[in-house]
Amino acid sequence: MRKRLPKTGARAARDEALLQELNGLCEMGMQREVLQMVDRLLVQKSSPMLFIEAVRALLIHADSLKDLKNWTGRLEKAYTAQSLRNSRTCRYAMLCFYHSVHDYQKALEFIPVRFSRFAAPLELAFALDTFLALNRTKKADALVARCLRLFRQISPGEEFNVLLHSLADYFAFKRDWENAIMLWEHLISDDVLGPQAFIEIAVARAMQARHAANDGLCHIKHLRKSRDALAISLPGNLKARLNEAEIELTLIKARLDQCLPPAT
After folding, report:
1. Which domain holds residue 147?
2. Could you read off the pLDDT of 199-213 as tens digits, one per residue?
3. How many domains does the chain contain in total?
4. HSE on the CB side for 88, CA within 13 Å?
5. Cα–Cα distance measured from residue 124 to residue 117, given in angstroms and rounded to the nearest whole number
6. H-helix segments, the chain
7. CA-CA distance, 112 to 185, in Å (whole number)?
8. What's the CA gap between 154 and 198, in Å, rounded?
9. Cα separation of the two ends of the chain
10. In-domain check, residue 183
11. Whole-structure pTM value
């Protein structure tokens, strides 16, 4: 006669079987069956592990859904059904979900006051994205030091690249274009993030060009104020050369203004 497993052991074995089933459906690309199973796991009171994996499976298939936000109610209900201790474990999955639907105000609720030293790269990346989206610059500044330390410790891979992209966005937010471009250049070979990295690099270079054009126009304005002193030491028609440079810089700036967001 087989021994009966202890209750906790039986539950762990059941969870493992459900996880294998979910992973198998994901690997076979059985989208409808995956979503049905996710729905079933959310309805029943699943363990934190199954809750997190259900959210992960849902987000993997997000592109095929009409509106991922339609799952918000089910996720919230399943999350609130967790115990206080388990909800802390599941909080990361909720941050991932609200980050994916760009509801950053709601995502903010699932960012811990203090991150565990075992915090996942994605958790830090999504928290940084959320702080930037909500213009919480002081919180973003404080988190970047932690992200940079982790960035130097983890091996290249999917999560490494997501964290790298978030750090690049932070430097772009700070108008530190060179550091932002340096990080984006590491992503151009990534199948998922590469195309967007090329766009970000192009925009950053254009922003640098507009900044140079503005600096040039300010410099010309300054030269005009001191034109009489310069005319003594510089040969030729300084006024004509200043006018020519001003026209060209103004045209460059106007063209860049047409394709870039307003300067802040």
Report:
1. 111-174
2. 999 999 999 999 999
3. 3
4. 8
5. 11
6. 7-27, 31-43, 48-60, 72-80, 84-100, 104-108, 121-133, 137-153, 158-173, 177-185, 194-225, 227-233, 238-259
7. 31
8. 24
9. 75
10. no
11. 0.81
